[in-house]
Amino acid sequence: MTKRAEALTAAILACRDKDGRITKRRVFTAARDDKRSLLGRQFNWNLREAAERHWLDRAGELIKQYITITVVNKSVKIKSVAYVRDPRLPARQEGFCSLADVAQSDAEKITLDELNRCESAILRARAVVGVLDARFPGLSDKLENALSLLVEARTQINSRRKAA
Prior knowledge:
Blueprint: H1 3-13, H2 24-33, H3 47-66, E1 68-73, E2 76-81, E3 83-85, E4 96-98, H4 104-135, H5 141-163
Antiparallel strand pairs: 1-2, 3-4
Helix pairs in contact: 4-5
């Protein structure tokens, strides 16, 4: 861990309450109280820029929450977001595309992106459960099975894409 990371870790841990909990509010307050500190420098204190970033994040939340599509697949009713990040755009360019209008190659890329997000969530869960499993054995077995299934699905999609 770098000295900077160690200092940020210490600053965040110093925000714990008497019960040892950390809250976003306590970290934000500590940063706001000393904007020139290392922790304070992790925030954008320009109110116009910070507000715009918040509003853009909120716009994304609204798109995900209210622009949905419902389909029936094998007698199962599935409700999903209707728009996802457009896989044809460069990494730093923002934009959503409709699931109803994607080509097969884009559908496969979107599926792989979703599987990557699932894998990231499972890997985070694996780390958390790994710590807990040391105290409460047996917790991690189901996660390992889920991760194996996910990796298998991704491998199959990648194989199909390479064959095409």
